[in-house]
Amino acid sequence: MLLVCPNCKTTLTKRASKLGLVWICPSCNGRAVVLEMVRNVVPRPVVNDLWQSTRSGQNVRRKPCPACKRRMVEVPVIAGGLMEHLDVCTGCHFIWFDTGEFEGLPKVPPKISDTQPLPKEAQEVLATLRLEALRRKLDYEGISDSGPDHWLEVIPAIFGIPIEYNYTPLKYRPIATWLLAAAIAAVSIAAFADLESVVARWGLIPAEFSRYLGLTLVSSFFLHAGVFHLLANLYFLVIFGDNTEDVLGKRRYLLLIALAALAGDVAHILSSPGDMTPCVGASGGISGILAYYCLRFPRANVGVLYWFQWIRLPVGIMFALWVLAQILEAFRQSAGLSHVAAFAHLTGACVGAIFWAIDRQPLSRTDKDGIDMPQGRAV
């Protein structure tokens, strides 16, 4: 696991100390230390006050965490008789010390012991195991002790939409995702001026799928039944599409969306061959992206707001719940009780799973460390 300095973006150097591992920046001499190690050096009341202040929600978040890249909380403390600001990550419990900040904190008097210290190699192994155990605990814990990095993410969460935790830095700009999202938004917003007639003309009608030489298979992808339908699909496209595009590349990424959308349309036509209700939306293609993302980044986390409490779930669990919901919705659709094209969603997800199976590679180091991680009738 490579840690990066939040100040100068330099890769940190791992060093073993008497108390555990420390990650030091060779440029600015800052250091990253886990909270558990600080407890062994700094008096417990000081550390407890620091942590309570971190979780109070009264301080700003500025620097990215060296490990998980979430914004750390900037907490004011007295160090060496001066007011300093320590940066603390509520997600992985790392504390970032700029030069002189750690030395200014009060220290616990050293204990006198007759036991021999462990060799340097053993200390490093033990510290690494403790850090890995802490990371696994945080990866699989059910309830997060903090909300999202930005208050704007609360808005989709209020409507039951999951938000992304452990944002994975991208190697390339997701140009294809941005252009596709812009095209969908432009066409849908333009259609809102006369939505009913536009949907009736250019939506996919299963009983008349060959209209305009089958062009409605494409036009229906860019149309949406309302503002919330559009915003929800754009949200999932941008949130899960950027990482998927980064892994697949632009061509294979667009091929995945196109095949997932087309397969979803075919499944919808076959499930309702005589239906005259126009069907619009990009959810079939986006379902393919969702399936690929969840299978490719199984240790990524999403946050869900439930009764004013943030619940953190691995995307694998979220995907399993989503599939179950779509299966139940498919039964409702077959019984004529639902206007959601669940068969299109499930088929699009199958295309995403096939892409993942074909493209599947051994887990990289970042995967093992858990960082790569990362309506009318609507499709």
Beta strand %: 5-15%
Find the count of extended strands (DSSP E, 2+ residues).
Answer: 10
Order of helices and strands: EEEHHEEEEHHHEHHHHHHEEHHH
Poorly predicted ranges: 139-145, 362-379
| Integer count of domains | 2
Tell me what you see in this structure.
- The chain is α+β, with helices and mostly antiparallel strands and 379 residues long.
- The protein folds into 2 domains: 13-140, no CATH class; 151-369, Rhomboid-like (Rhomboid-like fold), CATH 1.20.1540.
- Helix content is 47%, strand content 13%.
- The protein is built from 14 helices and 10 strands.
- The strands form 2 sheets. Strands 1-2-3-7-6-5-4 form a 7-stranded antiparallel sheet.
- The two termini are 39 Å apart.
- Mean pLDDT is 80; it is low at 139-145 and 362-379.
Quick description:
This protein has 379 residues and is an alpha+beta fold. The protein has 14 helices and ten strands. The chain has helices at 35-39, 44-55, 101-104, 120-140, 154-158, 175-191, 195-202, 216-222, 227-248, 250-271, 283-296, 315-334, 342-359, 365-369; strands at 13-16, 21-24, 31-34, 61-64, 71-79, 82-88, 94-97, 163-164, 301-306, 309-314.
Task: Name its key features.
7-stranded antiparallel β-sheet, 379 residues, single chain, 10 strands, alpha+beta, Rhomboid-like fold, disordered C terminus, 3-stranded antiparallel β-sheet
